[in-house]
Amino acid sequence: MIATSLSINKVEKSKVSELDFDNIPFGRAFTDHIYIADYANGQWSDFRIEPFANFSIHPANIAWHYGQAIFEGMKATKSINGEPMLFRPEMHAKRINRSAVRMSMPEFPEDAFKEAVYEMVKLEQNWIPEKEGSALYIRPYMIAMDEFIGVQVAQSYRFVIFCCPVGPYYSKALKLKAETKFIRAAQGGTGYAKAAGNYAGSLYPTKLAKDEGFDQILWLDAKEFKYAQEVGTMNIFFVIDDTVITPSTDDGTILEGITRNSLIAILKEKNIKIEERPITIEEIMQAGKNGSLKEVFGAGTAAVIATVKAIGYNDDMVSVNPDEFKIAPMLKDTLNGIRSTRLEDTFGWTVKVV
Ligand SMILES: *Cc1c(COP(=O)(O)O)cnc(C)c1O
What we know:
It contains 7 helices and 18 strands. The chain is of the alpha+beta class and 354 residues long. The relative contact order is 0.14.
């Protein structure tokens, strides 16, 4: 499936034998190759896969000053027969372009995106850990490359993909702070884009929350500090009585997670009630107090699902018991099972790389 004039320069010897697959440090082990494409004079060119190496950047690189930088995060897994597979790559190809448009960056052709991840995974397939829940994490990103100081839309860009093998992500149950002072995203802002700056702005409030004994922030809307948005790099789900509720994404403040989208589809298929709607922190706290709040969990590519055990809001705190969760473990098992071909992929989400 060659969409571009992709040139591939392979390493002479893979470093994969140096990796201890039973102890993979998350995000710190890198595979043999890197994919790069450059944009200048209004078009993408020089599509290439090269041995993984540093590249040099001009000290005035405009992205470092004014923040034109976006990214994606996706996973490749192996089927039970050892075939590499991608999960919903077309969704990631589309989403990076929604981010690009918002940050006034050039779109990267969807075919070239799919070809790039496909060829990278084909080349790096020996790096895909086989244990269920493990994966090859794929990080596509785009940065502006102009060597120029001045706030303006850059003329040159670089699109890059590197890969990190990752083990199963064991997250302890989280204690969330519903944040009432700082915001992550406002209507009209960049919340729906996977843009680097969104994360930079979240670090300081998260540090303060950690100092108070929380693990992560449950972001509330910027206007009234009333509606739940999301958590860190995860969308948030609540189970109240027998209904699953996740905040609707139509006001542009919430990142439209592909995990979120997949969980909603699984819930619908299993005839579990799922509502995408605004949900207030008051409703969550009340449900926590009257016992109708059964489960709270975050959903994203890295963790798949991270359970939540408590939510603090002003001087109030409600708890749930992750050991009693039923829907969250079912969803995690279903998604991991589809990704490992242990379960049939009735949705057509997985794409074999052959
Ligand atoms: C990436 C991300 C998510 C989760 O998206 P997935 O496609 O499921 O990985 C949720 N929220 C934020 C802010 C994110 O950056």
